[in-house]
Amino acid sequence: MPDFSQSAVSIAIRSWNGRELLEECLPSIVEALAHRKNPDDEICVVDDGSTDGTFEFLQTRYPRIRSYRQERSGSPTAANRAILSCKNEIVLMMDNDVKLEKGFIDHALPHFNDPKVFSVTMRALAFDKMTFRSGGQVGRFKRGFLRAWENYDVEDRETNPLVLARQLDTMYSVTAHTVFRRSLFEKLGGFDTLYYPTYWEDTEIGFRAWKMGYVNRYEPRALAYHRLHGTAGKLPKHENMALASERNRLIFHWKNISDPLFLAQHLFTLFFRLIFSLLTLKKSFVVPFYQAVTMLPLILAKRAEEKKHWVLTDREILRKPIETLKKLGA
After folding, report:
1. Residues 169 and 73 in one domain
2. How far apart are CA 321 and CA 302, in angstroms?
3. Which residue, of 130, 144, 161, 297, is most buried by count of CB atoms within 10 Å of its CB?
4. Which domain holds residue 282?
5. Count of Cβ atoms closer than 10 Å to residue 267 Cβ
6. Distance CA 2, CA 15 (A)
């Protein structure tokens, strides 16, 4: 089996109307990658139908970057193309609002010597290099839904035994700054394009990887700098995005949750939320519920196919990062 500690690295970036962000962030990425002095390292950028001259900017200013242009297809499709266009087995998936420093991936690479490791999420700070943005991800099932936005971090990053043993589990990896094993990413089918235009696709692929017996890890010594609401700030500021987020949350549960009690709680909560929303004419739930229901045949077909490969239960998956927290004394 190859030793990935010194592996060549591909950086995959998806971008939509992010020319200004790329102008700000790409210099740090190019410099950090050049510092590795590996001739097989590369950067691939997919321009997802931008109208701000992103593709022309890339071809003019960064001709050595492999850049691709496509019609607007949404974040999951753009990310899939970016990752699968890369030639190396280790691929760092990034948003266009992330900066790097030299040594950014040194501690993440050895994780992949474990053949079960699917992804490694990096520690992220804001551009001020002080404000904590994200780390390991903890999921908890409450009131009929998976709550997936709880972060954890490690203070003694250079001496903690769990860090040194590379045993920090995360429910999923944040795709703004996550290292993937390309072959497993392809085997799992990539990000599910049901989650158009964005939201929940990174949570889902991480959960799906766990269900199929693979592992997601957190590496707090691998550092990225993520601009607050950089990429998200480019999305339309209207209710359709909130509706898409709610719809995609429903899709996630109907496609992945299999624990009988979790399902019963979910259906119970859905019933009362739907009744309340209908009585109060609250379209913020009725509309995404209807949209998700129209997609139910496709959702269930994908669920049935993936179920053949399920290894872990929902509770076993959620227990992984929680057990990590307990070992950390949190």
Report:
1. yes
2. 26
3. 144
4. 239-310
5. 11
6. 32
Same domain, residue pair 186 and 288: no
Dihedral (C-alpha) 321, 323, 328, 329: value to the nearest 10 degrees?
130
Same domain, 104 and 220: yes
330, part of any domain: no
Pairing of strands 42-48, 66-70: parallel
User: What would the two tokens of residue 87 be?
Assistant: 């030639």
Quick check: is 317 in a domain?
Answer: no
Contact predicate 28/99, CB 8 Å: yes
Do 276 and 132 reside in the same domain of the chain?
Answer: no
CB contact at 8 A, 313 and 259: yes
Do residue 257 and residue 282 come from a single domain? yes
Run of H or E residues at 211: helix 201-211
Query: Phi then psi for 20, rounded to 5 degrees?
Result: -60, -40
Terminal CA-CA length for the chain? 36
- One domain, residues 274 and 223: no
Q: Are residues 213 and 253 in the same domain?
A: no
Helices (H) and strands (E) in the chain, counts: 11, 11
Walk along the chain (330 residues) and give the pLDDT tens digit of each residue. Answer: 789 999 999 999 999 999 999 999 999 999 999 999 999 999 999 999 999 999 999 999 999 999 999 999 999 999 999 999 999 999 999 999 999 999 999 999 999 999 999 999 999 999 999 999 999 999 999 999 999 989 999 999 999 999 999 999 999 999 999 999 999 999 999 999 999 998 999 999 999 999 999 999 999 999 999 996 655 555 555 558 899 999 999 999 999 999 999 999 999 999 999 999 999 988 899 999 999 999 999 999 999 999 999 999 999 999 999 999 999 986
CA dihedral 116, 121, 122, 127 (to 10 degrees): 170
Residue that terminates a domain, selected from 181, 215, 234: 234
- 132 and 262 co-located in one domain: no
Q: What is the CATH number of the domain that holds 47?
A: 3.90.550.10
